[in-house]
Amino acid sequence: MSLAAIALIVVMLVCMIIGVPISWSLILASGASLLLDGSALSIIPQRLFTSMDAFTMLAVPLFLVAGDIMAQGSISRRMVNFADSIFGTIRGGLSVVLLVSCAIFAALTGSALATTAAIGAIMYPAMTERKYPKDYTTALLAIGGTLGPIIPPSIVFIFYAQSSNLSVMKLFMSGIIPGILCCALWSVYAIFVAKKEKLPKEGNFSWKKVGIAFKESFLALLMPVIILGGIYLGIFTATEAAAVAVVYGLCISLFVYRDIKVRDLLPMFKNTAKTTANLMILIAAANVFGYLVAYFGITTSLTALVTKLAPNAVLFMVFSGLLLILCGMFMEATAVVVILCPILHPMAMSYGIDPVMYACFMVFLLCMGIATPPFAPSMFVACGISKEPITKVTKRILPMLAIQLIVGILIAVVPFLSTFLPSLV
């Protein structure tokens, strides 16, 4: 590799180690490499603009707004009540209710932290009131939040599509079966823990109770049907679906449920604007970095090196999987995707690995890091709600992380799990 290529990697790593924000680390590294190469620095603003000039990127702020609307209104609470009417009557049923609610909320927002915060605000008080262990409840919230970037629509998948030129719709569909499988296995584990620790049982099942809860939550439950159904039936794109989610959420929250006032919208939009700005700066900087990775031939050099160390696709999947888990433990999933996708995606294709399966594999393993210390943002949000020490919660969450790792391995071993639904498009 050339000196400029080495500088690109070294400057980025040094900046990140000393605490420079990831976005600026990528920009500084890009500038340093261009100066050493003698190329024009004007490449940076040109690539920054090009990366934002994409229709799919409009979906990010729209899904964030939709998440805020559901969290602040009663949409998420009504969904939880419906899940409670079905699963709440079994021993430890509230654990299952929490996980199912996370899955439903994830199918509307695509955000791990929004899922953890919204469901945690509703479920944590209810579960602690019924004598569920606080550290166990916190662990469930943290692990449930990781479904946000897996079950579509997913903000992380949007960034992956932007970095790899894959279809957003196919990536969305690749996460459905793994996400549901993971939620189901966690629920089985939750029932096992409930029986082992003799957690409370909430009365007997009643169809009347289910009917009442369904009636009260019908419009809320219709939201994921409209959004996901519209995407998969080809009625609208993922970006248009995000706009539909915002409009639908606003209409039923403002005019039907009337639990959000017009005066609440401005603070909501300000919060989304701040979050969106941070994400967009990151994706723009990563686009510049990814362009230079290809320009300096870093991918080609690394592919040749990896080919010697991993002569077949199996070893490549093992090595890249370990790398993704490690990176996910120290960095945000979105940041890892925009940095590593331009490098690992072409490598995976050179081994003949299905690109959609590898995208799902990559995002899924990175999502483990959302609940794995030391980074663990969803765990920090959950612990912020419960005030439980991270050390206690970590012990509780390890079996759930093991289940998630098993599903991640299954994605690689059984590509059907992630490729079947996209193949129907």
Automatic annotation (TrEMBL):
KW Ribonucleoprotein (keyword) present: no
Domain TRAP C4-dicarboxylate transport system permease DctM subunit: start-end pairs: 9-415
Pfam families linked: DctM
Keywords: Cell inner membrane, Cell membrane, Membrane, Transmembrane, Transmembrane helix
Record localization: Cell inner membrane
Presence of keyword ATP-binding: no
Membrane topology: Multi-pass membrane protein
Residues passing through the membrane, by range: 6-36, 48-75, 95-124, 136-160, 172-192, 213-235, 241-257, 277-298, 318-344, 356-376, 396-421
Name of the protein: TRAP transporter large permease
Organism: Jingyaoa shaoxingensis
